[in-house]
Amino acid sequence: xxxxxxxxxxxxxxxxxxxxxxxxxxxxxxxxxxxxxxxxxxxxxxxxxxxxxxxxxxxxxxxxxxxxxxxxxxxxxxxxxxxxxxxxxxxxxxxxxxxxxxxxxxxxxxxxxxxxxxxxxxxxxxxxxxxxxxxxxxxxxxxxxxxxxxxx
Length: 152
What we know:
By secondary structure, the protein is an alpha+beta fold.
């Protein structure tokens, strides 16, 4: 029975995790920094030196050949309109309806949305900037109508 795509991804990671644990026990590794060095070595060895049991090829060379022959599924990452930024893609999204005063509420927090139409649905894209601050981008009908940086 062939492996599902999910199993194909899980198998190497399960194998790598087992090998990492065995290597750390064998080498008496007790600190996370030591473990990170073992993990980095194992990943490099797996990708650049180990001959795969099915393909009988080293992953790195097989990948380089696929790139050279243009036989791969990777595509250039492009931001397509109406999206303007990666902040609009990799964010938490919440829909809210503006009140007659162009405000929305999230857990008792009232936010004024400039350029919003009263009683319209607005999509908030919440993009964390660091541990304390997020940028909130307001979208309505595929148009960015406002944004603000606020505390989480």
